[in-house]
Amino acid sequence: QEYNVSYLIIDEKLSTAEETASLLRCKPNTVYTWKYQKKLTPNKSGGKLLFKGKEIKRFLNIGDF
User: Per-residue pLDDT tens for 10-57?
Assistant: First the structure.
């Protein structure tokens, strides 16, 4: 079954790895793996990895990027 999250993702909103994992229906460790594989590019803020909605859409190949 296809799971459409595009309506939940706001381009400029920053999400933690945990929030990103929830959106993508995976575990946070998977998000970190994708980061290390350079499939997802985070922004760093105060020592935290944050993922822009636009980057998540790029990863999923949806939206204008």
Answer: 899 999 999 999 999 999 999 999 999 999 999 988 888 999 999 999
Sign of CA dihedral 11, 16, 17, 20: negative
31 three-state secondary structure: helix
Dump the DSSP string for 4-51. --GGG--TT-EEEHHHHHHHHTS-HHHHHHHHHTTSS--EEETTEEEE
Q: What is the DSSP string of 49-62?
A: EEEEHHHHHHHHT-
